[in-house]
Design a protein that fits this description.
heterodimer; A: mainly alpha; Rna Polymerase Sigma Factor, Chain: A; Arc Repressor Mutant, subunit A; 2 domains; globular; B: mainly alpha; rod-shaped
Chain lengths: 185, 116
């Protein structure tokens, strides 16, 4: 366990034992960028991602006592973020279905920010050819730098499945694109 | 943690997925504020519930006490003495119950404030 993880564990212990909001605030400061980046890549909508990140940290605060220090804190936090993302998708889908039932147009994707052609990066194009699950796994692997084992815990998938998803994702990308001279996403 | 060998393609993908750190810009402060607010609400919830519950319970409780007092007063003296000498005068009055409840609420609230 490195110094960063030890400090994270100390902050978690303080936040749980003393209901210390300042200790949790420090955890948020340390990890907000990675969580927000993960959600921004997943949703491709900065404001929606930031709303989800806020919800994610509130859920994390409520469930902090369930973090038992097995694995990294950021891995655990990204799992909460991914669950928050999936829940919000389910809710907006359900909301869209209800609106449809009462005769309204589906507005579940109303907030989805559609990038203009100038804003579309190579990453957008890559992510567009992947399924949602593949996208999440690829982001966790290549953007967040998690190991296969950490991804399997975060996405609740067996390690073998994670490996095959990454393999499949890379194949899809290889089939369609030459990975060189890209615009960052 | 790395549990795999990275090839050129992996490194290219990593650089493609790389992005600049997002500045905090008050994000963590907003979360901290929401948490402090939530903590306050949770701390106040029990005392408020006790006060509301007490306010609702005062009237039926007072009725019960009054009925008991009436019941004790109509009991024959020998039955009354068999009950261990309990008489209407020994039963707590409504004002005492109300005062006691308020005292309990005040003690709980002060204890929670001290705890914080």
């Amino acid at each position: 366990m490195n110094a960063d993880s030890t400090y994270d564990s100390e902050l978690v212990a303080r936040a749980v034992a003393q209901q210390d909001a300042a200790a949790f605030g420090e955890l948020v400061r340390r990890h907000q960028s990675q969580v927000r980046n993960f959600l921004r890549k997943l949703t491709r909508d900065a404001s929606l991602a930031d709303d989800l990140a806020q919800d994610c940290f509130m859920h994390a605060w409520d469930k902090l006592h369930t973090f038992i220090g097995r694995g990294s804190f950021i891995g655990w936090l990204l799992k909460v973020a991914y669950t928050t993302f999936l829940q919000s998708k389910r809710k907006s889908k359900r909301y869209g279905e209800i609106l449809e039932q009462v005769g309204h147009q589906d507005v579940s994707n109303e907030r989805q920010h559609m990038p203009t052609s100038d804003e579309i990066t190579d990453l957008d194009k890559f992510l567009a050819v992947l399924t949602e699950e593949e996208r999440a796994v690829m982001i966790l692997s290549y953007a967040c730098g998690l190991s296969h084992r950490e991804i399997s815990e975060t996405a609740d998938l067996p390690v073998g499945t994670v490996k095959s998803i990454i393999f499949r994702g890379k194949e899809k990308i290889r089939e369609r694109f030459e990975i060189s001279d890209h615009k960052h996403g | 943690m790395v549990d795999r060998m990275k090839d050129t393609e992996d490194r290219k993908l990593e650089s493609l997925f790389a992005s600049d750190a997002i500045p905090d810009a008050g994000f963590s402060t907003r979360i901290e504020k929401r948490i402090r607010r939530q903590l306050w609400v949770r701390r106040l919830a029990l005392p408020i519930a006790v006060v509301i519950g007490g306010a609702i319970a005062v009237k039926p409780l007072a009725g019960l006490v009054t009925s008991l007092m009436n019941f004790m007063s109509v009991l024959p003296a020998n039955v009354s003495s068999n009950l261990g000498g309990v008489s209407a005068l020994n039963l707590p009055q409504m004002s005492t119950i109300a005062l006691g409840s308020m005292l309990v609420v005040a003690v709980i609230t002060i204890a929670r404030l001290f705890e914080e």
